[in-house]
Amino acid sequence: SDPVPVSKVAAISQYACQRRTTLNNKNKIFTDALEILAENCEFNENERSYVVFARATSVLKSLPYAISSMTMLEGLPNMEVQPRAIIEEILEDGKSSTVESLLCDERYKATKLFTSIFGVGLKTADRWYRLGFRTLEEVQAAKDLKFTKMQKAGLMYCEDISSFVNKAEAHAVGQIIEKFVHKCVPNATVTLTGGFRRGKEIGHDVDFLITCPEEGKEEGILHKVHSLPQGLLLYYDIIESTMEKNKIPSKQYDVMDKFQKCFMILKLNNTLVQNTEPERQIESKDWKAIRVDLVIVPIQQYAYALLGWSGSRHFERDLRRFSYHEKRMNLDNHVLYDKTKKVFLTAKTEEEIFAHLGLEYIEPWERNA
Ligand code: DCP
Ligand code: MG
């Protein structure tokens, strides 16, 4: 007989920030399918449907048991008609025909391929698609296409970048970054964030936050990146800070933050990576291009930046939604603003931010929502 669903024991919250979601996903067969549909909604800029698929996916990821019948969905939040239909298809056939046909769809395939290139967003992907391009070879051979500096680098290293970064590589990159940062400011700290902080084995890039105990000292660091060892820096782009003091965060959920940052591509030598299989070293070149993001954060905003950059994207989205709708507070990667008391709430740690929001603390590895 089926185990008693947890939903019958204690209600599962509609908010990802009130659930513990580890990487031990018992419903991968459903969430893989639903994520493809959510992604396609993003490609079509269909925000409403994106949210419907993303929320259902996230609830399923948090369950400590596998769904094996439609009745097990009873009492679960965020299970709208569209995701339910997909789950039902999979329960009956082991796969979803909707997803199968989407995976063969020309536009979906091209958009997925093009947006996987560093520097290529939906606009560019759509333009290339409408020009009739379907493969990267066609794009690269095109006579009168203009590429940004970022796209040129993205295309040049697309094989390495699309092959994912593993933990050992992320660790090796971390050591390079730390060495560089400490040469600039000896007591600055470098923290690995993003998916790797959540315990993921692979990622599409490596994300680091950099801060200094004395405010202001962090400001010059990025402008010294060219002093990284010769040949290491394959590409970089520094985005200057657009910080405004005492700015009340907007209610938008997906806003980019205002920190100074550097998007780069590093040339990682295989000998710096522990446990690289010897075959891989012999078979081709002895280095790999890796996407790295560095974010410079003033110490007062560090806890908010850390929470914001640790993800997952859906966890972040629901944190902001929860703050806004349940607490009348606006949260972003810099501050938390209490609209009732009309005050900014300061925090030194992530724990303090959860406490401000009246939330139980959720560890980074439980934020894989
Ligand atoms: N982030 C966000 N909103 C965005 C972009 C990023 O909230 N529009 C946050 C959540 C992400 C984190 O920043 O987890 C890092 O962004 P990445 O795109 O690098 O995502 P991950 O590190 O989680 O995944 P990946 O393994 O693909 O790098
Ligand atoms: Mg990342």
From TrEMBL:
Binding site for Mg(2+): D205, D207, D293
Subcellular location: Nucleus
GO terms assigned for molecular function: DNA binding; DNA nucleotidylexotransferase activity; DNA-directed DNA polymerase activity; metal ion binding
Gene Ontology BP term (one): double-strand break repair via nonhomologous end joining
Presence of the UniProt keyword Magnesium in the record: yes
Chief localization: nucleus
Catalytic activity line of the entry: DNA(n) + a 2'-deoxyribonucleoside 5'-triphosphate = DNA(n+1) + diphosphate
E.C. numbers: 2.7.7.31
First-level EC class: transferase
Protein name in the entry: DNA nucleotidylexotransferase
